[in-house]
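Pipeline run #58 for the internal structure catalog. This entry was flagged by the ingest filter as a single-chain record with no existing model, so it goes straight to prediction. Upstream metadata was stripped on purpose; only the residue string is passed forward. Reviewer on rotation: M.T. Logging verbosity set to normal.
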Amino acid sequence: MPNLPDNPSPLDALDAHRAGIDAADAVLLPAFVRRMEAAVRIAECKLEAGMPVSRPGREHVILDRIRGAVPPEFADDAERLYRTILAISCSRQRIRILNAKLGRRVVLCGIKHCGKTRLGQALAKTLGLPFFDTDALIEADAGKPVRALYKEVGEARFRELEAASVRKFIASAPSPAVVALGGGVVSNPVLTPDDLHALGLIVWLDVPVPTAFERMAREGLPPFLADKPDPSVEFNRICAARRPIYGAAADAVLELPQVLPVEEAIDRFLIVLESKVISQ
């Protein structure tokens, strides 16, 4: 309890209690740092032993201990706090393991506006890797935006130019890295299965079609939909045709059935990637 003068004013009491919180934070924050440092050292041990990060039984033991260590009125809040701390700890462990074992590009595929660029950039930042977008590569090679190029040359020629940019990237780009593919890359008839395999570890971002269409409509319909009587019906048709193609091309699937904060989506992404590198 803070030291208070006799008959303190409300403002004096407020300042004193805030000072008490500051003093508690001065203890908590260094302890948090030590806990995260210990988590990384644990990741080193798991890496050497080939063990997965998650151990649900271990989490239950910790949470039961936390609930028993605080007054009952704080038990739920303490559990919520430690669930967050444990999630952060597991993510740091996965990052350490992936940094050591990934060794390949992580390639995001999926329907247009499924979040490949946004999540790809966030994943690249999380793992400390360079990020590439095949649409940006095509634009750099062609000297014009993808939409304008597609409208100018038509789909067949566009796919040839897309394949050329992708093959050029495969031959020269660093690895590991994170790559976001244009929506039609995995169904490009000019590219071979060997081309796709050479890109890296392909992860399909599986999101609901209405979610993707809503995002796309906000930014303006692309040329392949703009002239259709019912763009939504056409988009659903294209997505239905591509689903089995994405499934066949993908090494792993990240299911995102609802819109999530980027941090939560990245946590799920790390779990998917960890499962792949641990099984290698």
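catalog note: The first helix runs from residue 10 to 49.
catalog note: The mean pLDDT is 90.
status: ready for reviewer M.T.
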